[in-house]
């Protein structure tokens, strides 16, 4: 007869309690969501303004496309205002209408967006 090793009867065993990881203190998620939503709203407003302004300076109707695309993220990566002005002037080189007013307004709006996002150190 084979030997059996027993550590207790099934009725004696108690299922071990699962170990629960310690929960980190909860952050105020509502503030983060509200902040991100406000930032997204501002960014969308900026993109809509850029679209409208480009349609004006390129004299396009709603159903027509203008020739360029201004990448706000690419513009934000530039370190100085002079670099941003040069970047925009290169994009707008073929525009028939004056662009200086558009460029200055866009720079101001981008700067406001940057301050809202906390990246004003650039």
TrEMBL record:
Biased composition (Low complexity): 14-25
InterPro entries named in the record: CPI-17, CPI-17_sf
Pfam families the UniProt entry points to: PP1_inhibitor (PF05361)
Gene3D superfamilies linked: CPI-17
Region: Disordered, residue numbers: 1-28
Family to which this protein belongs: Belongs to the PP1 inhibitor family.
Protein name: Protein phosphatase 1 regulatory subunit 14C-like
Gene: LOC109465741
């Amino acid at each position: 007869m084979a030997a059996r090793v027993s550590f207790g009867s099934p009725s004696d065993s108690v299922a071990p309690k699962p170990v629960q990881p310690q929960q980190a203190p909860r952050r105020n998620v509502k503030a983060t969501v509200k902040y991100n939503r406000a930032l997204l709203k501002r960014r969308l407003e900026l993109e809509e303004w850029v679209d409208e302004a480009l349609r004006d300076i390129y004299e396009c109707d709603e159903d027509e496309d203008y020739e360029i695309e201004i990448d706000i993220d690419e513009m934000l990566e530039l370190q100085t205002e002079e670099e941003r002005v040069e970047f925009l002037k290169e994009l707008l080189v073929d525009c028939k209408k004056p662009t200086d007013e558009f460029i200055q307004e866009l720079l101001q709006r981008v700067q406001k967006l940057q301050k809202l996002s906390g990246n004003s150190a650039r």
